[in-house]
Amino acid sequence: MEIVIAPGEAEVGERAADAVVAALAGRPEPVLGVATGSSPLSTYAALAERRLDWSRTSAFALDEYVGLPEEHEQSYHRVVDAEVTRRLGLDPARVHVPDGNAPDLEAECERYERAIRDAGGIDVQLLGIGGNGHIGFNEPASSFASRTRIKTLAPHTRRDNARFFASLEEVPVHCLTQGLGTIMDARRVVLVAIGERKAAAVAAMVEGPVSAHVPASILQHHRHATIVVDEAAAALLEGAEYYRFIQEQKHRVR
Ligand code: F6R
After folding, report:
1. Hey, which residues does 174 pair with through a beta bridge?
2. For labeling, which of 56, 66, 80, 131 is most exposed (least CB within 10 Å)?
């Protein structure tokens, strides 16, 4: 894992955008995996500022709530459209979000996996991390081999996401999410974490044992994972001094 500690949210966005741009450079038909939530917003802002040509880029969302109407402002269809598609100027026809209202949800999950494969696989997957260590909506005890499927949201996640809804009761209970196996197939992953409420999960992901109890810890086995955190999210990293030293020395290798 490459650990990048940036001073604040804006710098996290810049560094994560650097990693995304590097991963997509030279790809004739780039494929970007997108996360929703608050963590990647500064990354999308930084990417938007760079005024790149996204016309040939496809995007795949990590997840979607089950049963939330597509036009609901918190459906990930809407969020991805507003925060990613419009902001970056992607072709909406190339942006994919699993359909949480499909009549056959299992068939929809299989279709989504096939669509990712048919696009050539994900070049770079952008991720946030839940306070309980989830990535996508792969909650604790998710299989490391899992593919896109229906999951039940953890009470912890529903409480966290209640800030986007009028009340906790309005937060859907089920979702469709790319599996940990799906995420691990991405050629590169870039995870962003901001704020002290992520510090324990970040430390467990980077320095704890690889355990289904902390789904993000599987990224220790990814060949090209970049973790970009601000000072507050890095606060519990025992190896922080070394991670900073690596970044300082990065361009000095001969
Ligand atoms: C979002 C997603 C989640 C979030 C995570 C952190 O598509 O899959 O894993 O990245 O819950 O959410 P925020 O960034 O809102 O703290």
Report:
1. 152
2. 56
- Do the Cβ atoms of 221 and 56 come closer than 8 Å? no
Beta pairing partners, 230: 6
Please tell me the distance from the alpha carbon of residue 83 to that of residue 20, in angstroms, as a whole number.
Answer: 16
Å from CA of 120 to ligand 1 middle = 25
Show the ligand 1 pocket: residues with CB < 6 angstroms.
35-39, 62-63, 128-130, 134-137
Q: Cα–Cα–Cα angle for 99, 100, 101, nearest 5°?
A: 90
Question: How far apart are the CA of 254 and the centre of ligand 1, in A?
Answer: 38
Give me the residue spans of the domains in the chain: 7-186
Class in CATH terms, 7-186: alpha beta
Residue 6 structure tokens: 């940036």
Q: What tens digit of pLDDT does each residue of 205-244 get? A: 999 999 999 999 999 999 999 999 999 999 999 999 999 9
Spatial CA neighbour of 227 closest among 198, 249, 253 = 198
CA-nearest of 74, 211, 209 to 134 is 211
Residue nearest to atom 12 of ligand 1 (CA): 37
CA distance linking residue 105 with residue 100, whole number of Å: 7
